[in-house]
Specification:
By secondary structure, the chain is an alpha/beta fold. The protein has a single domain, classed as TIM Barrel, CATH 3.20.20.70. The chain has 13 helices and eight strands. The protein has helices at residues 3-8, 20-25, 35-43, 48-57, 72-84, 104-120, 136-147, 160-168, 178-184, 191-206, 220-225, 236-244, 266-297; strands spanning 12-15, 30-32, 92-95, 128-133, 152-157, 173-176, 211-214, 231-234. Strands 1-2-3-4-5-6-7-8 form an eight-stranded parallel barrel, surrounded by six helices. Helix 11 links the parallel strand 7 (211-214) and strand 8 (231-234). It is globular, with a radius of gyration of 19 Å. The termini are far apart. 42% of the residues are buried.
Length: 299
């Protein structure tokens, strides 16, 4: 049995990719999209036909990028999502621009804009998660959006304060970044894995309904040891390794954890969160620059 088959028996598999050819060929439960993934797919030319149809049918004279108005970027984003979503079983996470991560009102406006465009393109709202960095403003906005029937994926989760706020606000799903935690804090049994196990135990103890999507992995052991999560989102590199490698039951289910206090990351989590937002913002800006080039050079 390969590792992917084993994982599918325990959790739902999400692909951290916008590669339409990969997504077409495998039965993924969900997708976690972001500008850098879409940028990569555009550069490797897998979207050539999609882009050609889009540029022929959409007004290139509207705003390129905007927090409040419907922009050219917004239309392209949802047009691409429209071409991906038919190949997945569950939900797709659509990311807001990182620049508004600390602005409650703009998060609300942008999220409603995404849902409006999804409806325009014929995508059902129950297939969409708005992907928001787990700042205080982001968590507050996600709680408000639930009133409008809009569910969210709170990403860049690095400490239990974020987790507790998400749980208390009944956020649909949270994405702890396993690898980035492991990179930043030493723990004998892997700090990133142990952090997610602590989240799971806390959720179970107090019967919270928020789902857990483990993200940002550095090795296969991390993925295997978090197969109890509701979802695991993996990059294409790890996806290929999961297919090629058979499960070794001697390495799974390391249950030794709690090597630190539940709030162990408070001293560094704000830095990790800020760095993550900066990286997301850089990726978004690269995408906008590419769009600008395509608009000016498309025949």
């Amino acid at each position: 049995m390969n590792i992917l088959t084993f994982l599918k028996k325990n959790t739902k598999i999400s692909i951290d990719s916008a590669d339409i050819n990969l997504i077409k060929n495998y039965n993924f439960d969900s997708i976690t999209s972001n500008p850098s993934l879409i940028l990569s797919s555009i550069i490797n030319k897998s979207y050539n036909l999609i882009l050609k149809k889009f540029f022929l049918n959409f007004n290139k004279n509207i705003l390129l990028d905007s927090d409040e108005s419907i922009s050219f970027y917004d239309n392209l984003l949802i047009y691409i999502i429209c071409n991906l979503i038919k190949f997945i079983n569950d939900k797709i996470s659509i990311e807001i621009p990182a620049r508004i991560s600390y602005n409650y009102n703009k998060i609300i406006i942008y999220s409603k804009k995404i849902i409006y465009l999804c409806d325009f393109f014929g995508i059902e709202k129950n297939k969409i998660l708005i992907k928001i960095p787990a700042t205080d403003s982001g968590i507050k906005a996600a709680s408000k959006l639930k009133i409008f029937g809009i569910e969210c994926n709170l990403t860049l989760i690095f400490d239990m304060n974020q987790v507790k706020k998400c749980f208390d606000n009944n956020i649909y799903i949270i994405s702890p970044f396993v690898g980035r935690i492991s990179d930043s804090l030493y723990c004998k049994y892997d700090s990133g894995v142990n952090f997610v196990k602590n989240i799971y135990n806390y959720k179970k103890k107090y019967n919270y309904k928020t789902k857990i999507m483990a993200a940002s992995f550095r090795n296969l052991n991390q993925i295997i040891n978090l197969s109890f999560c509701d979802y695991i989102t993996i990059s294409p590199i790890f996806f290929n390794k999961l297919i090629m490698k058979n499960i070794n039951f001697n390495i799974i289910k390391n249950n030794k954890f709690d090597c630190f206090n539940l709030n162990f990351l408070n001293k560094i989590s704000s830095k990790l969160l800020l760095n993550g937002i900066k990286q997301f913002d850089n990726d978004h800006n690269k995408m906008i620059n590419l769009l600008s080039f395509l608009i000016n050079n498309f025949n």
